[in-house]
Amino acid sequence: MKRWPSLIAAACLSLGITGLSALDAKPPVAQKKVEKAPVDPKAEAAFREQAKKIAGGTELDKVLALENKERGIKLEPMPVIDDLTFLRRIYCDLISRIPTADEVASFEADSSKNKRTELIDRLIENGRFVDRWTVFYADMFRLRAQADGGGAALAWVHQAVSEGMPHDEICRRLITTNGKAGAAPEVAFVLGDNADPMALAGVTSQVFMGVRISCAQCHDHPFDVWTQENFYGFAAYFGKTKRIENQFTRTIYANESDQSVILWPPEGKVKPEERKPMKPAFPFEMASVSETPEYISRLNALRSKQKAERDAQAKAGSKEDDVDDLLADASENEQKAKGKKLEDAITKEAKKDAKSLNIKAGMYTTSEWRQELANLVTSPRNRFFAKNMANRVWADLVGRGIVDPIDDFSDNNPPSHPKLLDYLADEFVASGFDLRSLVRLIVSSEVYQRSHVYGAEEQLQTELEKSFLATPMRRMLSETLYDSIVTAGHLSDVKHVAGKNMKTTWRLTQVVKPNSGKQGLALTAMKLEQKMAMNAPAMTKDDELAPGVDVEKGIELDFGKVLAKAKEDNKVEVEEMRVMSKEEIEAERMRAQMQTQRRGVEYIDRYAKATFDDNPRFGSSLRMASPAVPEHFLRVFGQTDREILGETRDHAPNMRQALMMLNGTLTHEASRVGELETMYSVLAEKKDLDAAVRLAYREILTREPSTNEVTEAKSIINANKDLLNGMADFRWILLNCNEFRFLP
Amino acid sequence: MGCLDYQLNRRAVLQASMASILGFSMRDLIAFGGTDHAPTAEHVIFFWNGGGMSHIDTWDPKPGRPTGGEFDAIDTSVEGVKISQIFPETAKVMHHCALVRSIAGTNGDHGRGTYQLQTSYQQTANLLHPGFGSIVTHEKKQLGDLPAYVTISGRAPKAAYLGQKCEAYFIGAPGEKDPYLSFPEGIASARGNQRLEVLEKFNGRFAEKSSNKELKSTQTSIDEALTLMRSPALAAFELDKVPTSQLNRYGDTPFGRGCLTAKQLVETGVRFVQVNRGGFDTHMNNFPAMEAHGEIMDPAISSLITDLAESGMLKKTLIVMLSEFGRTPKINKDAGRDHWANVFTCFMAGGGIKGGTVIGTSDEDGYEPKDNPVKVSNLHATFCHALGIDPDKKVMTPLQRPFKLVEDGTPIKELFA
């Protein structure tokens, strides 16, 4: 895996977006700033020194222990979990699935003293780590595959995580980029809210800094310090940004206009002519520039080193895309396009597109205001920025935010452990805003590896969890649940002997009888249908359940292809999830059309064949076009539609989830025993029921069963005449039980 | 507000008596609660005509005018009220129905119009408002085993900040059984039930170890699922037992079957049924398309109203038919009509409205409201009024932003007896 900065740093420099330039960005002289009690660096350093003296655990554990002591917490922490519990938890959190029986065995056999940290390192390098944290970012940034350029944006974030692009750089690009949806994948962020300055102000503060400022859009914030003027000043950074739709090509851009649309005072408060363009102003307090805290020194040192590496690489002769070459290509495109309709529009576009590939910052008007904003938001001196990310990742892994809810940093909702949060934020900044380092820091700690509270009173349990002395019980993410069922049930590859489960179904449908009715009339009707289909509003597409969409299947997207294609023709076509045969879909379409067709047309019954080998394979849900359709497994288990700001995944059980788990194809197929599974040979050939039960426990619950549990399982299996069916029943129960879907 | 007080009273009464009455025949119980705000409806059948249905060619004909188009206006069972010839049977039951012919819409765009007509709110970035069906589900108790809110043949608007409990339960096509309501293929019911029994034991044992609330609610959700799976009320989703003659009365079309299903569902206690239908975006060949729509809709709608009236259900079932907008009075060069939001019509029936009422008028060519223009939010407030729901009741979003159930609407009192 190529890593940042080697691969994209050069490109980044050519865009004029440099991480270094942001380092000491000073806030502009602006209106009333929100004052917060400054952090005393000396006291902070003394605290860290004192913490180091505490025995046991990582530096993080020591900071927490001292802070808990200062808070007067006298409770004993819950013990660190055993190896297998750790194994299941870390697999689910880092790569979004449970371990396989082989992985369980190899971890048990590992005699290394540092086997946990070594495993953490391996999992962080695993390709699925990238997939899983792309989901994290996609939720955070509200990326939607269905939106303009949304597929490319998902693929871009995937690439950024894969290459280890620093978090500040990712955010800077999202805030600053102008260009065409798809071709410039980052614009999905601005276009996602239709480039509406007011919406973007709310989003920028809440998503990147964890501060809810949206209320101040209409009035001074009722419970907080933000004023309406703060909000307007903040929104003004986006005041010149606009969404443009090309009327010929239907392509969407974000670009800058000359005039800002943010006027002050707000509409209706004064006469329209008295409203003047608002000057952008950053209302969030920044750490003083007069001092350089240790974490910034460390960041500077790291970034200088990275820059030196980049320079050395550049000298070594790595050739970059030459702008002149690109322009030559563009003019070639121009020649090709000549003689075609809409010549002007197309050639202009072609030129723009060709240029936008590598010099988009030059092609589209660079937003100076948004660059300034991005530098301020992502500055290491903006404590909100680093704390927000540290807190979000912490909450995801530990189960509870230090600031909770995660997007409400406010005087009314102070962090439970401010020093711990400072520590995490400092380390995050010093690591060069590196996601992997942050994740590693958290999961290596004892805090992460603590047991849940079992059998205690609710009040004590809450107290332990609030002090991070115990981990709260967490349900798997919907993607993790899905992929874990696929893993436990060996569904990612075929498990039955090929052709053994061939099934053919016939569906009765009606199609138009050829030459029926008055031909002209039928033809008119057909044309009308086509036209009506073309005119179908965008909503309709979404309103109707498309035939052939399986709400339990996940068709993986090839992110590399998506990105390449987006760059190539600027249009991402997400493959649909079809499980019906082509003729079946066609028949379905005809049947739908029939409803509005004219008299005089006759219909004939036709049976459409759908043949399938009932030997299903299920892909990973991490790479699906997301969010999935509302009825999909992932959505039913909590994936949001990523539309609403601040909506988090709902982990509460509901009836639809129960129906899907009890009666769905996924759990059913995962339960069935295939001839190609180890389970088959243990059960059908060796007839070793004890071993089979143990295997089932390891494969599904990542643990050994107790003696009683073995006895119980055997009686469940034996209740069935057929051992394989009995095992299917037993596996179905394990897959459906709470122990499976809640992390240990 | 009286409305709010009443609402509290009614809910308190309901909660107290729910256990013993199991949700039915509650009308008698709550009658004393309302003064002038007694709910006149307990159920809603909401027809959504996606694409923007022409008002002139349906409920607001302009015969003899240049914009009138190809259809005649026909007499109805209500003296002086004429509708388009494409609805001959519906014309005969017009005395059960009401029309609001002066909706003053503001959005000529499908997405924005749909959003406003289904939620009463204007669409804004990064916030979502709940659809009317979710509001009803939020405010009215579920009756019986079936979900309170069902959508047929397509999706309904989202519940947004009203929460997952208020999302619609959907069925793909009328008469089609939800595949998730029965055990997987090849699992006989004895075997499936056996599995469930053991599962409950496993989950019970696991839940004993921890005081985590979600562990217990998993079992609740399974119990709910089983109740539904095993409920005789599920028959309301099926049309197998409907005699052919009855199917034919509704016009044996997917839409007709949708209406029949909707009828069975409200009779079984479902609070809100949404029936979606598309194909109204008639930019070309408007007239043959509308004629075809009439042939499908007319028998279904008229039979539904007749049947509900006969069984007495119509009194407490509000039927509403809406579109995101109407269509241009001017007929374009392709013999079509384009988007027109300035004025269009809402069709209503039952649910305690005064049959035969017509609220507002459009001008002689159907361009603008003439008398009594009606805001979209007033329509929604009217629906709420019929159901005894306070449209001004405030609900908090997850970000603690208070929103009224309906955006500043006033009920149209003239619609009620």
Task: Report on this structure.
The complex is a heterodimer of chains A (744) and B (417). By secondary structure, chain A is mainly alpha-helical. Chain A is 50% helix and 5% strand. Chain A is built from 33 helices and 7 strands. In chain A, a hairpin with a 6-residue loop joins strand 2 (241-245) and strand 3 (252-256). The radius of gyration of chain A is 29 Å and the shape is globular. Chain A starts with 8 loop residues before the first helix and ends with a helix. Mean pLDDT of chain A is 81; it is low at 6-35, 322-343, 353-362, 516-548, 570-582 and 593-601. Chain B is α/β, with parallel strands linked by helices. Chain B has 3 domains: 1-38; 41-177 and 238-415, 3-Layer(aba) Sandwich (Alkaline Phosphatase, subunit A), CATH 3.40.720.10; 179-234, no CATH class. Helices cover 35% and strands 15% of the residues of chain B. Chain B has helices at residues 2-21, 26-31, 88-92, 110-119, 132-139, 189-209, 213-229, 244-249, 254-267, 286-311, 376-387; strands at 43-49, 73-75, 82-84, 97-103, 149-152, 169-171, 272-277, 317-322, 326-327, 339-340, 344-350, 358-359, 361-362, 369-371, 394-396, 402-404. In chain B, strands 6-5-7-1-8-11-4-12 form an 8-stranded mixed sheet, with helices on both faces. A two-stranded antiparallel sheet of chain B has the order 2-3. In chain B, helix 9 (254-267) runs parallel beside helix 10 (286-311). Chain B is globular. Classes of the chains: A mainly alpha (744), B alpha/beta (417). The interface between A and B is large, with 81 and 76 residues.
